[in-house]
Amino acid sequence: MQDAEVPVLIVGGGPVGLTARALLDRWGVPCLLVERHHALSPFPRSRLVNVRSMEIFRGLGLAARITDRAFAPRYGRVRFRDTLGGGDFASAAMTGVRAPVPESPALGVVTSQDRLEPVLLAAAAAPVRFGVELVGLAEESEGVVARLTDRRTGAESRLRARYVLAADGARSTVRDLLGVGTTGPGALGGVTTVVFDADLDRWCADGPAGVYFTAHGSFMPLYPEGGWAWFGPTPAAVDGTDWGDLVAHALGPGVDVRPEVLRVQHWVMNAFVAEHLRRGRALLAGDAAHAVPMVGGLGMNAGVADAHNLCWKLAGVLRGWAGPGLLDTYASERHPVAHETLRQAVANAQLLGDVQSRRRERPPTGGAVPDRIELPWMDQYFAQLGLVLGVAYRSSAVLTGDKGDTAPPSPPGTDYVPTVAPGHRLPHRRLTGDRSTLDALGEWFTLFTPDPAAWTPGTAAAGPLCVPVPLRVEPLPREHAEPYELGPHGALLVRPDGHVAAHWPDRPQAPAALAEALGRLTAAPA
Question: Beta 211-214 vs 77-81: how paired, if at all?
Fold first, then answer.
C-alpha cells in the first residue's frame, strides 16, 4: 500500500461503506475500502432493511440474496409486552415489510446486520483492507493524502485519493480529523446488547415479530434458524452483572429458560447530525454524518440513501461528465433529511422509553395479560413511508419548472403520496411482468417519454444517446403517461438515484433543451 493512489478512499466497512463500494464498482470507479476492525462485525446491530433500501439493493442485483438470508415477511411486526413470556398489550406491522405496498416493487426485510454485510462485501471486486486504520488526512490541490496504519504490524503507509468517503461510524475519525462538529442531543445513554441462545418457541412461535419491546428491555430473534439478542440500558455495575440472570428476569416469571450467553457488547446510543457533510474533498455518510437512535430502524437505511445520493455524483465528477460543483448538492440534499431522521428517531426513542417506564410501574397482577392499550404514536412510528419514500430534494441538481414546488413532501412519518414533482423519488409503475419503472434506472439518467422519436430525432427510438452525460431513453406506455402527468410528447428526466430531475408535460420549445438541462443538472464544465 506504499504510495498507492486511488480515485476514492472509503473509510469504514459497515453497511454504508460496503454499499458505497458496490455502487462505485457498478459505476466503474476504482476505490479502496479500509476498516479498522479485523473482520466484519459479529454483532446483529441494525435489524431492518426498509423498502427504499431494498429498492437500491434491487438495482444492484442483491435483493434476492438479502431476502434469502432474512426472516419471512410474517416477522415484519413489532410486539409490546411486559415480559417476553406475557401477552401483547400492543402490536403493529412494519409498513413495507410485513406485506407488499403498491407504491414499490420491493419488499423490506427483517435481517441482522451480520447477515447483510457479507452479501454487500461479495457484491463488488474493489479491494478491502481489514485491520487498517486511518490516522491522518491532509488535503492537496488535486486530492487528499491519507496516513494508514496496519493494526497487526504497526506499519504505516500513505495513500493518495481524489476523494474520501467517510462511513466510519458515530465516533468517526475522519470527522474528528476534519474538525467537523455536531448538533443534537448527543449521547442518550449507554446500551448493552446480549447475544444468547435459548428455546423460546413456546412463547413466540404463534406471535412472530422482528422485535419484542418489553418493560425490561427488548428482544430480537437473530436468524431464521435460531439465536436471540436482548438490548437495554447498561447497568451501573457492569463488572458484577450476571447477564444470564438479567436476560432471564426480562423473559419473565413464566419462562423457565436459562439463556446461554454468547457475546456481550456495550455501546452508546448517540443522537446528532454533523454540522457539515462535506469538508473539501472529504464527504461524510451514515453514522459519521448522522447518528440516530436505533428505535424505528431509520439510521442504517438513511446511510444507504446517503451513499446512493453521493456515489453517482462522485462518478460523474471523476469520469468527467459532471463538474465538481455537483458534489455541493450532496450536503444541500441530504442534510435536511438527516435532521428530519434524527427528529423522528429521537421522538421514537423517547416515546418507547416512556411506554416501558409506565409498564414497569404498572406490572400485571396474578399473571393475567394486561389490558390492551392503544399507543397514539404507533401510526407515526411505523407508517414511515412518508419519510422513507417521500424524501424530496431541493438543489441545483433538480430543475424546477412547470412542476416546481407544487407538490411538497409528505409529512414525515405519515402516508406517502406519490408525485412526479422534481426532487421526489420516481413513483413506481409496473411496465411488463415484474419490471418496474424503477428497474429502468441504472448508471445513467433516464428519460421516460411516450414519444421517444420526438426527443431523439435521427437516432433509434430508445437506448443510449450520444451526449456527454450517460442517458437512456425509456419508452413509456401510453397508460402510464397520464399518471406521470405527461402529454403525448412529454418527458420525465430521472437521475441515477431515482429522483426526478426535470418534468416537461409536453415537448419543450428549444430543440437543445434536454442537453442544456443535463449540463445544468450536473454542473458540467462548459
Answer: parallel
Task: Mark the ranges of the chain whose per-residue pLDDT is less than 50.
Answer: 1, 366-370, 372, 374, 376-377, 402-408, 410-411, 458-463
Q: What is the pLDDT of residues 32-42, one digit of tens each?
A: 999 999 999 88
- In order, the DSSP letters of 412-479 are TTS------STTBBPPP-B-STT-BGGGG-BSBEEEEES-HHHHSTTS-SSEE-SSSS-EEEEEPPHH
Residue 157 C-alpha cell reads as 503507509
How many CA atoms within 13 Å lie on the side-chain side of 117? Answer: 21
Identify the pLDDT of residue 60: 97
User: What pLDDT sits at residue 367?
Assistant: 47
Cell numbers describing residue 458: 435521427
User: Which residues are within 8 A (CB) of 338 and not within 5 positions of it... i.e. 6 or more apart?
Assistant: 273, 274, 277, 289, 290, 302
Burial 230-256 (b: 16+ CB within 10 A, else e): bbbebeeeeeeeebeebbbebbbeebe
DSSP string, 33-89: EEESSSSS--S----EE-HHHHHHHHHTT-HHHHHHTS--GGG-EEEEESSTTS-EE
Q: CA 420 → CA 112, 483, 499, distances in Å?
A: 34, 9, 9
DSSP strand pairing (132-139 vs 144-150): antiparallel
Which is nearest to 6 in space by CA: 16, 14, 25, 135?
A: 25
In 169-318 the beta strands, taken as DSSP E runs, fall at 182-197, 211-214, 217-223, 226-233, 260-274, 278-279, 282-284, 290-291
Segment 354-390, tens digit of pLDDT = 777 777 776 555 444 445 454 544 555 555 788 889 9
* pTM for this prediction: 0.92
Report CA torsion sign: 101, 103, 105, 107.
negative
> Which residues on neighbouring strands pair with residue 161, listed in sequence order?
6, 144
Nearest-5° Cα angle at 239, 253 to 46: 70
Strand order of the β-sheet with 471-475 is 463-464, 471-475, 445-449, 491-494, 500-504
Q: Are 424 and 392 in contact (CB under 8 A)?
A: yes
List C-alpha distances in Å: 80 to 30, 50, 378. 47, 21, 11
Q: Which residues of 304-326 are buried (b: 16+ CB within 10 A; e: fewer)?
A: bbbbbbbbbbbbbbbeebbbeeb
List C-alpha distances in Å: 60 to 15, 107, 264.
14, 15, 34
> At a CB cut-off of 8 Å and minimum separation 6, what does 181 contact?
274, 275
Q: Which three cell numbers stand for residue 359?
A: 409498564
Residues near 316 by Cβ (< 8 Å), separated by ≥ 6? 322, 326, 469, 522
